[in-house]
Amino acid sequence: MKNPLDPSLRRFAFALCFTVAPLLAADASGLATRPAVREALAYIERVEPETLNEQVRLCEIPAPPFGESVRAEYYRKKFVELGLHDVRIDSEGNVLGFRPGRAGGPLVVFDAHLDTVFPADVSTKVTREGTILKGPGIADNCRGLTVLLTVARALQQSRIATDATIVFVGSVGEEGLGDLRGMKHLFGKELAGRITHFIALDGTGLGAADGAVGSYRYRVTFRAPGGHSYGMFGLANPIHALGRAIEKISNFTVPDSPKTTFNVGRIEGGTSVNSIAHTVSMEIDMRSVGAKELDATDAAFRAAIAAALKEENEFWQKHARNPRARLINSRSPVTADIERIGTRPTGRTADDAPILQAVRRADAALGIKSSFSPGSTNSNTPISLGIPAVTLRTGGDGSGNHALDEQFDSKDSHLGTQRAFLALLEVAGVVP
Questions:
Q1: Which of 6, 85, 219, 331 has the fewest CB atoms within 10 Å, measured from its CB?
Q2: Which tops the pLDDT comparison, 21 or 145?
């Protein structure tokens, strides 16, 4: 698969191949024995109730796709309160705050995405029942956003100095049709050529994503002249063509390994129940960890669209009895425009990469069993550029992600924050 990112990003990746520094600190198991680090870990556990309160506050601020600005402004103010440097909202909408390391040292991005999948008219009210928090986005990604703030606060409280400069980021455009626009801007413009390591906070539990699930997303629009359902019966029908295409797509056979998926997620169009439509569209998402498998599914999808058009047009050219309909069919058959509306690159961080070893050592220090699997996250962008990257799950237990009844179980959720803190410290390097 061709790298879908801008050529400028690929140039930066090439340069970084020669500039990415090794990890700079004692390992996380050793770090956890240092007095200042022990105190910070205890602090994180002690303030978990306030972390959960913050999770609720953040989640009740709407952040629909392409509408993250209100939550971003709240996040910006939090960065200022934490004493981060050069706090700003960039031109794409990402919130940035810097914690300086040594001059000329590495630059580690510590990120959580601001956006949810829910439109602006969805209620963001969060309810509580024991350890359970319920509300749209409460797990994905209000938990990640809150863990980031608590880690930043623990660093500031402990006054632990790091070799690397840490850039705390609340990013936009991770969900849906956002198409990783926040990350593409961060790596392509805002911090282009400077980022040496990347850690994202996304999802719940205590796993981690070391691979990038790639995706192609398309909007396919079928068009024809349309007409009265009775008077112009015999016209080739865009909705029927779309139905033929979906029937073919639904019969795709894709591999289990590497896991490859497809889904028609939206359909819209038509005029009325008694009209032959002139326009209808569908949106499709195809994913795989494997570039070849993703491209093969993409080719099958394009073949399905072509076959559906051929079948619909040939059927009515043969069977239409209305002379006018036959004439229109011959002059203006159903057509389809295929528009790519999203691309996420594939890739994987090497299993023996120091950044993954840092996560494993943080897990060992906290008694967590390490678990890695691929994901579709903000890490896709740096992974595709050859920059060491990992996405950490953030503790607790989430369910119903992207559903209105999404929920988060906060039992032992502080472990996710402690682990993120330790992993970040090892990657950033603790100054003696």
A1: 331
A2: 145
